[in-house]
Amino acid sequence: MTRSALFCAVLILTFLTTACGTESSSETDGEESWQLVWSDEFDGTAGTVPNSDNWTYDIGRGSNGWGNQELQYYTDRPENASLDGDGNLVITAIRESFGGASYTSARILTQDLFEQQYGRFEARLKTPYGPGIWPAFWMLGSNFETVGWPTSGEIDIMELRGQEPSKIAGSIHGPGFFAGNAITRSYTLPDGRFDTDYHLFAIEWSQDKIDFYVDDVRYQTITRADVSNRNGTWVFDQPFFMIMNIAVGGTYVGPPSQQTTFPQEMVIDYVRVYSKAE
């Protein structure tokens, strides 16, 4: 599905260099009581495209490389997004000439198919790696097409610079705190890299705060008061939809280098969404 020109234009600053990024001490929470309300376990025959009841696509190069000078052409081909037959969805970035671009990839989203306000949103996955590779698991407000960005709000559950395969960032964007002024924090694995094993990336979102987790370790909490202290507006009180993609190049990561190998894959075991159990 081709996105509107508005989508392309308003994202020009969305993924600029993350501002105010700091690494935090980690904290493990106790068990919460959650009820599963939506999931995709990606079971099916190898080569099958994602379930169209759950996912749609962004297609093309966007305006100015989706507003971020990205280098890929997003497709809905199985070469760029398909099941592997072992219970995973694989999003693949390929070096190839296609549609005027030098790379292809996929960006899938649940817009108009599944959107939820509050709850726990999680994905278990392995990231790609390498200079110029930019995977992300993120969300936009369901009123995006009406009010635009950043008024719609954005939650970046996970984004990673491929040249830093042990570190991810979690961020929010909204009126008064967006792009280079986003509210954000990074998390670095104590051992290992995000591309060599599966890790669980999640948020727990309620009326007045959003908690960010890696492997159920909470590393950041952003509250309504934090936004107010930035002279911003809390817009996280409406349904949001999910997005998963691999970008190639762009303002956040720079271009691929001679050390970047292709194809690059993000292997997703599952995506699950919960609401608080009554």
Describe the structure.
The chain has helices at 5-10, 65-69, 144-147, 224-229; strands at residues 27-28, 34-40, 56-58, 72-74, 81-83, 89-98, 101-105, 107-109, 119-126, 133-141, 154-160, 167-173, 183-188, 199-205, 209-214, 217-223, 240-248, 264-276. The chain has 278 residues and is mainly β. It folds into 2 domains: 34-105 and 253-277, Sandwich (Jelly Rolls); 141-240, Sandwich (Jelly Rolls). Strands 1, 2, 4, 5, 6, 7, 9, 14, 15, 16 and 18 form an 11-stranded mixed beta sheet that branches. The chain is globular, with a radius of gyration of 17 Å.
Keywords:
278 residues, mainly beta, Jelly Rolls, 11-stranded mixed sheet, disordered N terminus
Summarize this entry quickly.
Residues 1-19 form the signal peptide. By secondary structure, the chain is mainly beta.
What are the SSEs and their pairings?
Layout: H1 5-10, E1 27-28, E2 34-40, E3 56-58, H2 65-69, E4 72-74, E5 81-83, E6 89-98, E7 101-105, E8 107-109, E9 119-126, E10 133-141, H3 144-147, E11 154-160, E12 167-173, E13 183-188, E14 199-205, E15 209-214, E16 217-223, H4 224-229, E17 240-248, E18 264-276
- Can you name the CATH architecture of the largest domain? Sandwich
Number of strands: 18
Multimeric state? single chain
Kindly report how far apart the N and C termini lie: 37 Å
| Biggest sheet overview | 11 strands, mixed
- The CATH topology annotation of the largest domain reads as Jelly Rolls
Q: What's the gyration radius in Å?
A: 17 Å
Keywords: Hydrolase, Signal
Protein name: Glycosyl hydrolase family 16
Organism: Rhodohalobacter mucosus
Signal peptide: 1-19
